[in-house]
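Field log, afternoon session.

UNIT: design team B
ACTIVITY: writing a sequence onto a fixed backbone
BACKBONE:
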């Protein structure tokens, strides 16, 4: 039987397709703006320059200093450039780190945002901003943070290294897996979650073999949109709480941490809600955690927290932090069960179930 639910659709404009980045100037005008500050990470600037050329005199300047976890000091430097250039909107061109900077600016100055995502993190379709100050990561949610326009152009993802493609894809898949058992899930979010997972199952192994395969890149970006949309729509649970803990308090890299944790948190919760995770079992060879672990291994993802620099001595503290102010979770948790789960993930063992 369909349970009662509430459903609100995001008001963002989505423009999807190869070559669509060329429409960025039109979008600047359609949202009533004239001078866009382009944001990026400090990676090679050829594509950023191309974007600046497309924008022509609608480009106010380039701030290429975005970094992971949106440190407030970086946002303040970008805000200074907003003031100096008289920018009236931002164009964030890159992964979740760049999108995060655009959101941080929008949150402070209420500037409209156009995002051109080049990873699968999904931040571009959520009203959530995580930022760090003095080593502490805090999260805010506001309609002002949700980007107004997202341009998904698969051609701009052809150069995304395969390692990042895989971990970023698993990051997106984690949004979908947790959406399936979210307390506030609804039939549409669950449909999107399963379709998002399917898109990555179809595309990630092709991308590993042929990073320039445009159809596979389009499929993965489609999956990223769906998985990001459910992240922005329903509440996340234990998996995201653990990853926020490891990122915020132990400086673990975002996508890799999600990639390693997903099979373990999914296996843990599958015990409590096998019926809700049945579509995951079906997609991954009959087992939720084991199937996701096999998929991640075949894709060459890191499998153990120790591989990405977490010390075993930190596991007790991580379990304690992750169980404080817990997110709602379908299976009850305590310090001991989360500690055991972290040990498995630290060692990189294939989860049962
Ligand atoms: P990222 O944006 O840091 O990108 C990873 C690396 O890939 C960077 O070095 C970047 O320069 C490079 N890169 C990006 N696109 C490229 C391309 N097409 N070709 C070559 N290199 C490219 O990493 P991410 O995983 O996309 O984002 C992580 C950040 O996003 C974290 O700060 C995380 O907290 C945030 N995030 C926020 C939300 C949200 O809803 N608020 C959701 C997901 C992630």
């Amino acid at each position: 039987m369909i349970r009662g639910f509430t459903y609100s659709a995001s008001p963002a404009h989505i423009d999807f397709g190869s070559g669509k980045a060329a429409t960025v100037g039109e979008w600047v005008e359609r949202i009533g703006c004239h001078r866009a500050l382009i944001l990026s990470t400090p990676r090679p600037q050829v594509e950023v320059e191309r974007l600046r050329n497309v924008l022509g005199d609608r480009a106010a300047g380039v701030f290429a200093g975005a970094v992971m976890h949106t440190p407030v000091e970086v946002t303040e430097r970008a805000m200074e450039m907003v003031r100096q250039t008289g920018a009236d909107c931002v164009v964030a061109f890159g992964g979740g780190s760049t999108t995060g900077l655009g959101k941080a600016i929008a949150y402070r100055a209420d500037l409209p945002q156009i995002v051109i995502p080049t990873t699968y993190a999904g931040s571009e379709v959520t009203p959530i901003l995580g930022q760090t100050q003095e080593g502490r990561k805090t999260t805010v949610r506001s309609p002002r943070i949700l980007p107004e326009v997202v341009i998904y152009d698969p051609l701009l993802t052809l150069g995304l290294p395969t390692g990042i493609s895989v971990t970023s894809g698993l990051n997106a898949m984690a949004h979908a897996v947790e959406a399936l058992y979210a307390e506030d899930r609804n039939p549409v979010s669950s449909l999107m979650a399963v379709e998002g997972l399917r898109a990555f199952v179809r595309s990630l192994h092709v991308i590993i073999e042929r990073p320039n395969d445009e159809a596979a890149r389009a499929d993965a970006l489609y999956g990223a949109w769906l998985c990001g949309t459910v992240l922005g729509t329903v509440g996340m649970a234990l998996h995201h709480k653990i990853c926020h803990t490891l990122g915020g308090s132990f400086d673990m890299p975002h996508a890799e941490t999600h990639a390693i944790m997903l099979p373990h948190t999914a296996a843990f919760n599958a015990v409590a809600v096998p019926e809700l995770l049945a579509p995951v079992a079906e997609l991954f060879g009959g087992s939720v955690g084991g199937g996701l672990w096999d998929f991640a291994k075949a894709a060459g993802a890191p499998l153990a927290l120790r591989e990405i620099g977490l010390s075993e001595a930190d596991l007790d503290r991580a379990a304690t932090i992750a169980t404080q102010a817990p997110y709602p979770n379908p299976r009850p948790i305590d310090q001991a069960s989360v500690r055991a789960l972290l040990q498995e993930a630290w060692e990189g063992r294939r989860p049962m179930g």
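LOG NOTE: The mean pLDDT is 96.
NEXT ACTIVITY: expression trials, pending approval
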